[in-house]
Design brief:
Helix content: 40-55%
Distance between the termini: 50 Å
Structural class: alpha/beta
CATH topology of the largest domain: Aspartate Aminotransferase, domain 2
Oligomer: single chain
Strand order of the largest sheet: 2-8-7-6-5-3-4
Order of helices and strands: HHEHHEHEHEHEHEEEHHHEHEEEH
Number of helices: 13
CATH class of the largest domain: Alpha Beta
């Protein structure tokens, strides 16, 4: 077999979204696109803001000298300066430009951070349910992912955290608003987490870093407030992507920001700049760096996702589904009517509805719906959802 056994195993473990996507392709060929309701992929479907598009057109038509050449691995100095100013204003913590690194999306940024932090056997705690790729990113660099449970409303479970965080713990990853639940962690919960990490760091005689994966922070509903991690915990690292706020998922552009008070921050930053090179990224895409520089405060209209959330949440809860109401991002994570979420997903397939089983996110008994679909897809799917509700006698 040409593949390594490890990659073959990981491909099998991570294939839920891909399987459902391929099943959707088959169903669309059989029944027609308008009769298949595909809620699997979290692929942002809103176009970038017009201000960003104008900036991009200007750069293409009036290129900055040398803008397509190699640069410092951390990115263009003027872009790092702009990002530092933006993060400082957003967080209330003064972040110098040399504490910012431009990266190849949040996925690239997380790999750079983990490559710099982890020795073989180091542990990284992730809260379940989680973005499934975290497990593979941690493994990429010799780390061991440790799954921490959350409560019924997906809030932090500090009893589970107490059990899972130990002397080998190097970092904890938080993702808020969360994929797949849409939960936004409250400031008080984040402060309690920070105190917990300070206590554990002191007990074990080593700093436990808090990695905040923030790509959905501008997609908030119902007046929810995103509590920036920098004022809450000094040993923190923020990884950000413009995939969601500017609708640039395919352009792979984001940044890493290290709290100026983080333990060993200078060494960490030097390590990350080295890692971005040796991991093969070399630098973040040059054109996109310059294009986002003047669009850091811009965003797509999150009210579109909120409208879709309202429509889907209202309809499904009326049908009897149990759902923790999302307050951000563009997902919801309803409870499966049966314990076997894979069985439920199969029942949905019979009605041409495609969703992803919760087991793919480390939380069996649930399923994920992505709201990156046209409003008409939600509307047209409701009859099929009602059939499913009747099948399980939910309402």
């Amino acid at each position: 077999m040409p593949l390594s056994s490890k990659i073959a195993r990981q491909m099998e473990e991570s294939s839920w979204i891909r399987r459902m996507f391929e099943e959707g392709v088959r169903l669309k060929k059989q029944h027609g696109t308008d009769k298949v309701y595909d809620f699997t992929l979290g692929n942002p479907d809103l176009e970038p803001p017009e201000a960003f598009q104008r900036r991009l057109r200007h750069l293409v038509e009036h290129p900055v000298p040398n803008m397509h050449r190699y640069m410092q691995n951390a990115g263009f100095p003027e872009v790092r300066e702009a990002v530092a100013q933006y993060v400082s204003g957003d967080s209330g913590v003064e972040v110098p430009p040399d504490h910012v690194i431009l990266c190849v999306g949040a996925g690239g940024g997380l790999n750079v951070v983990l490559k710099s932090l982890l020795d073989a056997g180091d542990e990284v705690a992730v809260f379940s349910p989680y973005f499934a790729e975290y497990l593979f990113y941690i493994d990429n660099h010799g780390g061991i992912p440790v799954k921490v449970e959350t409560g019924a409303s997906f809030e932090f479970d500090f009893a589970s955290l107490e059990e899972k965080v130990g002397p080998r713990t190097r970092a904890v990853i938080v993702n808020s608003p969360n994929n797949p639940t849409g939960v936004v962690y409250e400031a008080e919960s984040m402060r309690r987490l920070a105190e917990f990490l300070r206590e554990k760091s002191a007990r074990f005689g080593k700093t436990i870093y808090l990695i905040s994966d923030d790509p959905y922070k501008k997609i908030l509903f119902d007046g929810a407030v995103y509590p920036h991690v920098f004022p809450i915990y000094e040993h923190s690292i923020v990884v950000y992507s413009h995939s969601k706020d500017l609708g640039l998922a395919g352009e792979r552009i984001g940044h890493i920001a290290v709290h100026p008070g983080a333990d060993g921050s200078a060494q960490l930053l030097a390590g990350m700049i080295f890692a971005i090179r040796v991991l093969g990224f070399v630098n973040a895409p040059a054109l996109m760096q310059l294009a986002v520089k003047d669009s850091l405060g811009d965003s797509i209209d999150s009210r579109v996702y909120e409208r879709r959330r309202n429509a889907m949440y209202g309809a499904l809860t009326e049908m009897g589904f149990e759902i923790v109401k999302p307050r951000g991002a563009f997902y919801m994570f309803p409870k499966s009517p049966v314990a076997d979420d894979r069985e439920f997903v199969g029942e949905c397939l019979k009605r041409n509805i495609l969703v992803v089983p919760g087991i793919g996110f480390g939380r069996a008994g649930y399923f994920r719906i992505s709201l990156t679909v046209p409003d008409r897809t939600i509307e047209n799917s409701l009859a099929a959802w009602r059939e499913i509700s009747r099948t399980y006698a939910l309402a």
